[in-house]
User: What shape does this take?
Amino acid sequence: MQTEETVQDGVLVVGVRVPRLEASNAPEFRRTLIERIEAGHQQIVIDLAQVQFIDSSALGALIGAVKRMGALGTIALAAPNGTLSRLLTLTRMDKVFPITETVEDAVAKLAS
Amino acid sequence: MAGQRLRVRRHLACVAPAAMASRDFARLHLDEEGASSVELAVAETLTNAIKHGQVRGRDDTDLVLSLDVDPEWLTVEIFDHVPLVPDGLLQAAGEQALEIDPEDLVNLSESGRGLALIVLSMDEVSLHTTPDRFSLRMRKRLG
Assistant: This one.
């Protein structure tokens, strides 16, 4: 799955560069995130700016990652569009992940 | 506009094109949010059918997706030769199925939200049975 990764102020930013996170690529997405956690990244921002669609399988991948992270660190979701924001709220993911309007806001929150 | 009928191969990679076609059809009659809801409901239903179909080893037949509209309703129906949702689960699906305890990450489930999302995305969801097939009918009120 296409991602773009940068480290900003010690925070790993994983930019998702596919328009859809769904059952066909959710296992790979989950694996990517867990590999980064196991590599020692404890502050991770997932940049969703280019994602137009998320289904329940992709939510499951995010939950798998946050469970793997546990108390070690934080995973934040940044820049979801309106449809994604509604879904994240409906499924209570806003109670599990910090969600910010921009990547910069998420990095600032996790770096502080 | 006339309705559409699509055959969908029982493969996860075939879900997105069908879901996007549903969204495009819905967007002719609904606002952006309504069309996105239809797209999600179709994607969740097809994914569920394909995943369970593979478990039961029946991946040889296509699913059928129909899209129709009348002055009051946009109707999406997905047909399979086995029930698309197990008995009783549809009635139990709803917002309460999405409740979580954010303090209890260990027990936070990674799965099991699809049916609730289908029910909450649409205005009416019902299961139908004919002698040779089953369907999940999902309707969105227009206007």
Remarks:
- Chain B touches chain A through 30 residues (CB under 8 Å).
- Residues 4-141 of chain B form a domain with the Heat Shock Protein 90 fold (CATH 3.30.565.10).
